[in-house]
Design a protein that fits this description.
It is built from twelve helices and no strands. By secondary structure, it is an all-alpha fold. It has one domain (about 5-290). It is globular and about 50 Å long.
Length: about 290
């Protein structure tokens, strides 16, 4: 693997991890659903020229856009809005990996061996420790909202599997098309006055939104898709494992988020479980190739 591509993967890890700061700063400055709507306005501007009608698969494209766009990021934004300890959210967000595998078992009938089963149990046990940590009891609502967002992400993964061959920018363009009106309408109803207050919002808040749209969504996800077209999954995915650790580090540095003993244990269990699932799934996908 070329050193420049390794450096690119590590850059993506940093972009994704630092996005927790961008999201938190955005929702501190304006209502959470409105921040996501503005994020998708940026995505739409970038992806507009890539939007195409996908014959025979438009219904799935649009449903996928709603689930992985308005629902996932709407729930995620509200979790950051009510949270004070971002480190807990960075750990809880890793539930998306075991949830993806659980949904694949339930819906696609995928069969797994004992190693990935242990990975699922470890990841879930780690997040459960966060829920029962009395020192971060105030974060339980945020953790449950993060669980909802992770479930949407996991469901979206199954949908994306059925949309292979469609350019990433086309999918993101449609995601923005369907999510933007939903988010704006919902924000207007439950976040009254949010749009009218935009002229008073500092420019730095809009910069954070642009960061989330361009750096985290388009460079990060599109870049990862580009790499996966050139290298085996088993070679790429292990390089993404530092992301939650970096996210916890950024949260601690920027907001002095406390990391309790139970959070350390829960975080290690969750990351260990995610690592097992990621590495075993990557190996399985390579072995399945003819």
């Amino acid at each position: 693997m070329k050193p420049i591509h390794i450096a690119f993967i590590l850059l993506i890890d940093v972009l994704w991890a630092f996005n927790i700061i961008a999201i938190k700063e955005s929702v501190l400055a304006m209502p959470p659903l409105l921040t996501v709507a503005l994020r998708y306005a940026v995505v739409l501007l970038v992806c507009a020229s890539s939007i195409r009608i996908i014959e025979g698969r438009m219904a799935l494209v649009l449903v996928t856009g709603v689930v992985t766009g308005a629902l996932q990021f709407g729930l995620g934004a509200y979790s950051y809005h009510v949270a004070t300890n971002l480190s807990a959210l960075a750990i809880a967000g890793q539930l998306g990996v075991p949830l993806s595998l659980i949904l694949a078992i339930l819906i696609d009938g995928e069969r797994i061996a004992w190693k990935r089963t242990i990975g699922i149990l470890l990841a879930i046990a780690g997040v459960m420790l966060l829920v029962f940590d009395p020192r971060i009891a105030d974060e339980r609502l945020a953790i449950f909202l993060t669980f909802g967002a992770a479930t949407c992400w996991a469901a979206g993964n199954l949908m994306f599997r059925r949309l292979t061959g469609i350019p990433v920018l086309t999918l993101y363009g449609w995601q923005a098309v369907v999510s933007l009106p939903i988010l704006l309408l919902t924000s207007h109803v439950i976040e009254p006055g949010g749009i009218a207050s935009l002229p008073q919002v500092q420019l730095s808040a809009f910069a954070w939104i642009v960061y989330s749209a361009i750096a985290a969504s388009l460079i990060g996800h599109a870049g990862m898709a580009w790499l996966l077209q050139r290298y085996p999954v088993t070679l790429i995915t292990p390089f993404t494992l530092p992301t939650p650790l970096l996210a916890v580090m950024f949260a601690t540095l920027f907001y002095n988020s406390p990391v309790t003993p139970l959070m350390w244990v829960g975080g290690l269990l969750t990351i260990a479980g995610v690592a097992i699932i990621t590495l075993r799934t990557a190996k399985k996908s390579v072995e399945a190739k003819p």
